[in-house]
Amino acid sequence: MNLQNPQKRIWSASNQFLRFLLATCLSLLGTGCVSKGYSYQGNPLFGWMESSGEIRATNPYPILTRYPSFQATDFEFPVGGKYAEGYYLAQKFGAENGKFGGRKHLGEDWNSITGGDSDFAAPVYAFGNGVVSEIADYGGGWGKVVRIVHHHNVGNGDFWFLETVYAHLHTIDVEPGQLVKKTEWIGTIGDAGGNYPAHLHFELRSAIGASLGGGYGLKTDGFLPPTRWLMQYGPKDKSFSEESFQYLIEKGGTL
């Protein structure tokens, strides 16, 4: 996969995103977007979603147009702080999973190094500056989900749109249309209603507003490897790789 040339995004809302809005039963338009700033305290007001089937979404493009300087110039891990301290990569991007017919993992699964469900209700942070486009409780294998669209400034006047997906959450602490900053608390790690050991399933997408899918696929088109992306666009104080986060007994295992 060539990370130098991901698919570029058009500034106006695409037909693809409009299909996404219809598919997710868009219920809110023009939602207010007041940033909470760098926050490490959850907002219980939005941790209310208990039953499956609840979806709230908004079109992020008018909001990004209204705030053109609110761009994502760099990114950080969604768990554990700047370098995912205290966490390991239980299942990496592209790993083939026999439980799903050998299909490839379309994201990354992150767990605490203390094991078990010790990371249950631990904070989940925004990957970069962006607009919350959807919060939902899909139930089943997905559980509670947050989706964020990022306007990525890569320099030289070039911009890409990216989307991040945070799944299996215990609580959701943001609302649709909200501007969130890199490292801002957006929710907490969950277990998809008891379907899995507690962990974060995290996806980085170049296909904005596509259907949620199943987390696995025969191909990885429209998806990007998060840790490899961070190696290029993330913090530079020290080097890291996917392999540097796979060092426990669970290495090579799957959730």
Automatic annotation (TrEMBL):
Gene3D superfamilies: Glucose Permease (Domain IIA). Residues 122-206 form the M23ase beta-sheet core domain. Pfam families: Peptidase_M23. One of its GO terms (molecular function) is metalloendopeptidase activity. This is Peptidase, M23 family.
